[in-house]
Amino acid sequence: MKKTKLSAPRYRLMKSRIFFYLVCTFSLLTMIPLFLIIGELIRKGYKQFNFDLFTKVAPTSMEAMLARISGDAIPGGILNGLAGTLLILAVAIVLAIPLGIATGVYLAEKKEKPLARLVRNLSDLLQGIPSIVIGVIVYIWVVKPMAGYSALAGSTALAIMMLPMVIRSTEESLKMLPDSLKEAGLALGGSYSAVVLRILLPSSFSGLFTGALLAISRVMGETAPLLVTVLGAATVNWDITQPTTAVSLLIWEFYNDPNLASLIWSSSLLLLLIVLCINLLAKSIAKKWKIQ
Amino acid sequence: MAKMDKLLRGILLTAACFIIVLTAGIVYGLVSQSWDAFASFGFFRFIASTEWDSRNDIYGALPFIAGTVMTAVLAILFCIPFSLSVSLFNGEYFRNKKLSLFVSSVVDLLAGVPSIVFGLWGFYTLRPVLVDLGLSQQGFGVLLASIVLAVMIIPYASSLSAEFIAMVPNDLKEGAYSLGATNLEVIQRVSLPVAGSGIFASYILAFGRALGETMAVTMLIGNTNNIPRNLADTGNTMASIIANQFGEAGGLKLSALMVIGLLLFFITASVNFIAKYIMKLVNR
Predict the structure, then answer these.
(1) Distance (Å) from the C-alpha of residue A270 to the closest C-alpha of chain B?
(2) N or C: which end of chain A has fewer CB within 10 A?
(3) What is the DSSP letter of A242?
(4) pLDDT digits over B127-150, tens only?
């Protein structure tokens, strides 16, 4: 190597140290947005974060305008959104989780059979589809034939988004079980179904549970697919064939209506808190059971 | 017992086959609905035309394709210094340390923040900053959308590349250290080259995310149907035009939006396929 000033050990070490500090600085900077977002939501939302938020439906633009003119806080909450999110999610869970687990078990059992490989690739393909495209597809297949927007359509869209995640986590957690476990079950004279239902699934329960929680938290805040499938509703609706609203959809409506703008923050704060809590819960379970 | 076995095998097979039916249904649905627009404009004229005129029923997708590619490419460029730092932090410097667990958890939580909340943050917090800096008059536009997109994809790009960097064999690194290499030189000459294709694949996956992101972009890009001429210019992406105009669309316009959906589907699917393919080569 040519002996220049820049190749002297002192300079090389200095360069290395500077790079290390740069990496630390940029890593630190990367963490800032999360805290900025949470901070801003708390700062702007805590005033409206009250009992009404959970017990009253969203106000109309007119009510909000009158309250704004008289200088009061905007009345109402997001009860209709909370009910809608609960309904849509519950149906989506019923649709996606049994199907996802069954497919995951199939993939873990059949490993490299051609059909299993095809299904695994298709599941990866589904995972990559943008959420708005899934919304559009559900519009074609559910909204149009049913001649109207409905909670069921929204659930279908969210279920399609959850499916690949549930399949992947089921397959991964089953794969981590030692083969000896399955062999022991079979050696004791257990049938195939007994081994799958009584040994494999219960032993990987925490993995399946974590996967389901992460899938739920990922679709909970989704707005785009709901925009084209459930339409929105001014009242609480528990009928899955009727138009419904959701917390994320209400935030979108508040954003588009200047009169309702001050409700954005409390409802976003609530949504973010729920999503992050489910996320943290899933991670802590995963850590406790030492799964990835 | 044997009956139970048969039933269970049947259920598992049916579930797996349902995934195939579902995917086929998705592709078929998009293609069949796109047919009208294909028939009246022709595929190449549709993607090469810049006109989007609801009154005369003339539609073209070029501005949205341009907007999508611009925002996604910019987002990747903006995110690289941050996500690469995070992945070096977690995969190289502080591998398996408590500190890296904390940093990676915080960055992963960022992935959990709903898209619409990112949109609000971009609109109410970042937009005024851009206006104050004089980067654009209204703040809306490609630049704002790409910055927020960059923040959104950092977790996807960084967590996967950290894994690839952490997988670099210690022997190689120790060899370099024993020859007197500094930390930086080991990263430059050993870690990054060895983990290179894995890192590249994770950025392609992140790019795929950025292409399909909808809500945040819809709220920030300004929603005008032109090809963005510079960073401060407004535009529309393929996802945002669908989100914006789907509600009021019918007839030929609906079909045109379906074509855009189909295009977006194929673009993201091929991008993801490329990333997965590279990863498969790496793992071998």
Answers:
(1) 11
(2) N
(3) S
(4) 999 999 887 778 889 999 999 999
Q: Which of A171, A34, A46 is nearest to A105 (CA)?
A: A171
Confirm or reject contact between B158 and chain A (CB < 8 A): yes
Q: Is B206 on the interface with A (CB under 8 A)?
A: no
**Domain hosting residue A114, numbered range:** 79-284
The highest-confidence range among A61-75, A193-207, B14-28, by mean pLDDT, is: B14-28
| Dist. CA B246–CA B253, nearest whole Å | 9
- Three-state secondary structure along B206-249? HHHHHHHCCHHHHHHCECCCCCCCCCCCCECCHHHHHHHHCCCC
Cβ B109–A136 below 8 Å, yes or no? no
Contact with chain A for residue B100, Cβ under 8 A: no
User: What mean pLDDT, rounded, does chain A reach?
Assistant: 90
Cβ contact (<8 Å) for B23 and A264? no
> What is the rounded radius of gyration, in angstroms, for the C-alpha atoms of chain B?
23
Contacts with B150 (C-beta within 8 Å, 6 or more apart), sequence order: B74, B75, B76, B77, B78, B79, B82
Please name the member of B1, B23, B83 whose beta carbon is closest to the beta carbon of A125.
B23
| B279 contacts B196 by C-beta, under 8 angstroms | no
Q: Which pLDDT tens digit goes with each residue over B30-84?
A: 999 998 888 888 888 888 888 888 888 889 899 999 999 999 999 999 999 999 9
Question: Candidates 1.10.3720.10, 1.10.10.10, 2.30.110.10, 1.10.3880.10; correct CATH number of B62-236?
Answer: 1.10.3720.10
**B239: nearest CA in chain A?**
A132
- Least CB-CB distance to A283: which of B105, B124, B182? B105
Contact state of A271 with B110 under an 8 Å Cβ cutoff: no
Q: Which residues pair with B52 in a beta bridge?
A: B59
Query: Smallest Cα–Cα separation from A94: which of A240, A249, A274, A196?
Result: A240
B30 touches A: beta carbon within 8 Å: yes
**Domain residue ranges of chain B, discontinuous segments joined by +:** 62-236
Which tops the pLDDT comparison, A48 or B239?
B239
Asked if residue A170 is part of any domain, the answer here is: yes
How many angstroms separate the CA atoms of B267 and B259, rounded? 12
Q: For B16, which residue in chain A has the nearest alpha carbon?
A: A103
